[in-house]
Every structure is written in C-alpha cells, then in structure tokens.
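Request from the bench team (R.T.):
"We need a structural guess for the complex before ordering more 26W. Sequence and SMILES attached. Just send the tokens back."

Command: build protein-26W structure.
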Amino acid sequence: LALAPVTAPETSADAFVADFLHNLNFDRGVALSASSENDRYFALAHTVRDYLMARWLEDLRRQKESQAKGVCYLSAEYLLGRQLDNNLLAGGLADIAQEALASCGVSLDDLRQHEVEPGLGNGGLGRLAACFVDSLATLGVPSIGYGIRYEYGIFRQTFVDGQQVEQPDSWLSLGSPWEFARPEDAQTIAFGGHTETYDDEGVTRSRWVPGWNVQAVPYNYMIPGFQNGRVNTLRLWSAVATKAFDLRIFNSGDYEEAVRAQTYAETISKVLYPEDSTPQGKELRLQQQYFFVAASIHDFLDSMLPGDYDLAKLPERVIFQLNDTHPVIAVPEFMRVLVDEKKMDWDAAWAITRQCFAYTCHTLLPEALEVWPVELLGRLLPRHLEIIYRINEEFLDAVRARYGDDEMRIRNMSIIAEHPVRSVRMAYLATVAGAKVNGVAELHSQLLRDKVLSDFDDFFPGKFTNVTNGVTPRRFLRLANPGLSGLITEAIGEGWLTDLERLRELEPFADDAGFRASFAEVKAANKRRLNDVLRERDGFEVSDGHMLDVMVKRLHEYKRQLLKVLHVVSTYEGVVSGRVAASDVQPRTVIFGAKAAPGYTMAKRIIHLINAVGSVVNSDPRLDGRLKVIFPPNYNVTLAERVIPAADLSEQISLAGKEASGTGNMKFALNGALTIGTDDGANVEIRELVGDDHFFLFGMSEPEVEALSARGYRPSEFYQADAGLRAAIDLIASGAFSRGDRSVFEPVVSNLLYEDRFMVLADYASYIAAQERVDAAYADQEAWTRSAVLNVARTGFFSSDRSIRDYIDRIWHTPPLA
Ligand SMILES: CCc1ccc([C@H](C)CC(=O)N[C@@H]2O[C@H](CO)[C@@H](O)[C@H](O)[C@H]2O)cc1
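Reply to R.T.: structure attached below.
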C-alpha cells in the first residue's frame, strides 16, 4: 500500500462532500453545525488540495527523475491574489465544489469572500512573477519559484481625511490553508563575520567565518497548471532563529534576552519593503535578499541533484532567472559555493556561473537601480564582497583588453562605483554575470541597449534581448470576466485559454451587431457587479450610463496620475466657470486605485489631491452628476479583478521612456477597454496590434521627450501659453479643493510649475485633445463596442504563456516536460 501512487478523490459532488466533511471534522476538529466560516474555508481549501495533491507529487517526482533542465525563478515579490478560485479552475473543480457545498448548505461565494489575498508584492514586478509561475505550470515547464514568505505583505491602505494611512497586513492571522511548512528542509543561512585564507593541501583557499546565522524554513505552495494535470511548486522562505530560546539566559531571569535571537531572526522575513522604485538601502533589505537566494541555491543543489552530480553539467540542468536586481547577490553566493565549498577552481566556477544566471530588468528610472555600499556589503557578507571584487577585476581586465586604457569607460562600466560612496552597482553585476539580459517591452529593451546599459551592449554582443511582458488569461479573463469568457467560447470554441492568439478569430464578430450587443451587455453587467462591490466595500455608487475611465497602478510621478487630475479639474473648471454647459459633459466616472510608498511624500500629496478634488466634484450640483471621481482604498489584485472587466477607458499615460512595460494596460485591452496612452512601454506594441483607430494616442514620443529635456524644459512656459491649463492649475492653487487653504497643495502646484520632472504640462494639451476624441468616440456606442471587440481580438499576444515561450526560446532553453 505504501508504494501505491497517491490518487485524487473521485471527481464527483458526493466524493467532494465526503472529503470536505472529513477535513472539517478530522483536520479542523469541528462539526459542520459548530464550524466557523474560517473552518469551512480551511476545509474547502484542504479538499481542493487533496484533489491536486497526486498531480503535485507526480510532477515533483518526474521533474527530479527526468533531470530535465529547469527554471529557478528568483523573485523578492509574488503578488499572487486569492488562490481558491484559481485552484478550483485549474483542477476543473468549480462546478462540483459549488454543488457539493450547496448540498451541505454552505455558500461557495461566502467562502470566496473570506479568503485574504497574499499581498507579497508591491505592483508590476510582483504580479508578473505570479503570472509567470502560472504559465510555467500551464506549459508544463520544470520550474520552481523561490521567494520570501513575508509575515506582513504590502500594507493595507486606508484614507483619513483623504490621506493615505498604512495598516499592517496581517494576512496570516487566521493562518493560510494553501501552504505546506517543511521545517525538515530548513537551511542555515549565515551572516557577518570575516574571511580567512588557508592552505588546503598546497592550494591556498579562502573561507568565510560567519558571525551569526538563522534558519530558513520553506513553505511550499501549489501552482497548478490549467487543467493539464501539472502542479509546480512555489517555495517561500521564512526566518527563524537557529537557537530560538536560550534557557540559560532565561533561567538567569533575563527573559527578553533569552528570546532576542528569535525576535532578531524573525525580522528578516517579517515584512515586505513597500517601495517599488526608490530603494532605501536598508541593511535588513540586503539581509532579506541574501537570505532567500542562499536558501534557494542550497535547496536546489541539495534536493534536485543526485549526490554525485557533476557540477560542470549544471548549465544543462538549471537556469536561475533574476527578477530584477533584488536577487543578484545569488551570483557571488553561487561562486562561493562552487569555489569555497565544492573546491572548484575559479575559472571553471565562473564559466558555469555565467551560464546559470539570466537577468530581467524592470525599470528605467536610475534611482530604482539598486546600489549597495561596500561598507555594508563587506560587513554583512565579507566573502561575497571579495568575490564581487574579483569578478569586477577580471571583467575590467577584459574591457581594457578590448578598448585599451579608456579610463572613462572603465569607470563607467565598473561594477564598483566610487561616488558618492564606494558601492556595488547590482544591475552591472547582473549584466556581467547573466548569460542574457532582457527588458520587458520592445521600447524598454531598446532603451536599455541604447542608453542605460549601452556600454555593456557594446561589450557583450548578443547578450541583450527582449521579452515583452504578459498576463495570465486564466485569472484576468476567465476568472475576472466569466461573462466575456462565455461569449468568446460561444463564438470561437474552447482552447483560447491556453492559446490566446486564437482570440484573433473574434475579428469578424466585431462587425456582428448581435455579438456587439451581447458584448455591450456583458460590459454593463460587469459595471453593475463592480457597483455592488464598491457600494458594499466603500459605500461608493457608480452611476448608470457613465463611461468608466480607470487609472489603477502604484502612485508614482512618472505614471502621471497628476495629468488625469488636471483633466478632471479642467472639465470641472469649464462647467463652474460657465464656459461649458454641464449637459455638454460626457457622463464619466473616473476610478483611481493607487498605493504610495509610505516614504514617498509627493506621491502621498497627490493621493490627498485626488481625494480632495473628488469630494468637491462629486458634491457640486453644477456638474449635475455628470462627472464623478471614485478612489477606493487598498487597490489590490482582488479589486483589480472587479474593476478591469468593468472599464471602458484604460489610462496608460506615463511619460514616454519611463514605464518599462506596464501589465495593467494588457489586462484592460483583453477585457474590452480602449486605451488612452503615450507611446511608452508595451503601449507601443498594444497600439501596433490593435491599430491606430482603436487606440487614443497622445503626447511626446521618447525621442521628443529627450529632445525637450535637452533643449531645457521650462514647465511654466506651458502654463503661460495654455489658458485651460492655467485655469486648472490656478483652481488647485486657489485652495478650491482644500477649503480655501492654499498651502495644502502648494507643493504640488509649485513642483508642477518649476520642476515637473515628468513633463505633465508639456503633454497636457495633447492629452486633453485626446480626451475630447474619447468623448466623441464614446457617443457612438456601436463604433466604440466594435473597437472594444477588436481590442480583445488583437491582444492575445499579451498572454504570459507567450512571454514564457519567448523566455524558453531566447534565454532558458527549458522545453516543457512531455
Ligand atoms: C528596491 C526598490 C524597487 C522595488 C521594486 C522595483 C520594481 C522593479 C518596480 C516594478 O514593479 N517595475 C515594474 O515592473 C513591471 C513588470 O515588468 C513593468 O510592467 C512596469 O512597467 C514596471 O514599472 C524597483 C525598485
């Protein structure tokens, strides 16, 4: 019996009920009649796990046995969203679960609402990682996602007087039924101390003598493929003290000291850093990065390779994908293991390392590129600093060999920056060590090659490539928009969910009035559903017949939420000044969703301004209810799944050359919203695919932005030259949205007039003109719906399955396991 393969329960409502009640009674230890909602939720989750378990164990066995080349995806963030529905969909269990629970008088929908989403990420980068592990499993690629099991995820956002207030995200307070703790697979992670050299039978070797260590305890999460019988693993590490409790100190009465090691250790995986662009350079952040990558490397080498594995073959067995620079300390750690622990000679180890890593860059903002002072790195990871120095030395020797003694180039390319403080440029380390470096959209990858890392593109021909981002259609179409999914399947049959480019077959339906009517009805139903959610969640009402104009993303000046605010204020000013009749205003509700990094003051001011403008506009009878602003707090994956299917207009208005890709833009287009946007990030590829007639383009292109900043940009000139712009800014400056107190938003206004780093004023006129085109287009609902259908039909390219296939072809060479 012990050797019998694990089998899933029978796929029937009766078997499902039996397993559910078994889990409730024997795992939760309660009877249904006495059970709490959390008990029922846990029992349901465990039942779904039971149905997926056999596949998981079988997949793990096959991946190990096959020794096929696999991907280790190293990411400091995974923005997973709720798990229940996705696991029900992947297992094809949704219908029997519904029926089974109903037969017990339990509402599946109540249990859905009970789930707290694991907010283990900030925004784009974290959500992309979640989409990618879903696609890796659905394509059947041997792979493991590695990350950190933060005890507290991204903060919960509340508004007090329109201002952001952060609350801790205690997502684990009721426990998480989807995780499997594996303390027996814990890894010891060292820190601090010093290094020394020693003689090893005539060979001088270096070794690290750490100062202290912690335990990294893994928690496994199922990542089921979509109805393909595959389940991959996401392994997240949690920190605990090696010696949790010191009885001797305790007996001496210093209770606090007795548990200090534990408290200290736990802080490593205590909380996610809520920054998504400006690193704070905190030591704990570096501790987090080293903690999870060291644990992951050791775990892979220990658990996935046979004892006598020939390490020289590692490049045929694994590729570590670095999700931005956050995990790049993995490179010197890998070298340390090969050279110091496996006693491999440096050159052989480096030759292997350079084939086992690849780096994805997700940003263009210089301030977002991580640099670590050598003082800090040397103190926390002394051996790693030595290794980085040697990597850099040999690299610069090669640069000199190629270009001669070009000191400027040497200084520009050195992994070690001398100013302002001697630091390690993590993006340069990742670029030198990576077999491949990719950007996340065509324009982004081009700018990396031409500008940000041009010296490296010149030195490493063929190293730079592009993989345009994608999103999983399982969560962001099938689960978020069942109405549209049903319509699509009715029109073109099944199969599109794992072959999204088949959406092209919808093109002819754009000219089918009946189909358009059904499509418009689905959009209207999604709006009603959103209205129910927002009313219950935040007491907001979405007015019928309003165009839903949506801007949801992290709050950052380069994303230009301020441009959207100026459009709202201009429309408002037009009416209250009497220049525009309210009846001429296209009924529109503007929905914002945005968290600001707690330390990002200007971003928090802009959130305050949005709420302040909203409360004035929403309550001014002169607008006759034709313009509304809604800003639900705590935008997250769960809210995105309700807002995106209801949207008519998708705001993708960043300054050209600043948004690496964007992924929200893809989700909106796939859900039948039209985009108003600049030629930035993946907007360019969306516009190329949907066609200029079905995309509201505005603003400067990236070269025009460069040209303007080269000429010297003086925002106040645009203020002077544009009466509409001046009226809008003056209204804000006047205190009209701050009870007459001009000081409240003065910093925002003066920044716009005298700095405006992201050229909001320069693109204002073009934006307003584009919004007028939007109003005109929306007046013709048939034409609008036709464009919306074509947006859906032509954006199948933006599936994360296609992105993963590109990574396999261009970077990983890890074909799916048959
Ligand atoms: C250390 C601070 C920090 C934290 C996170 C980041 C991320 C790279 C920021 C991020 O999420 N970037 C976004 O990544 C998405 C996925 O590729 C892109 O679609 C977005 O354009 C990009 O802003 C930078 C710096």
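Two things stood out. The chain has a mean pLDDT of 96. DSSP finds 34 helices and 25 strands in the chain.
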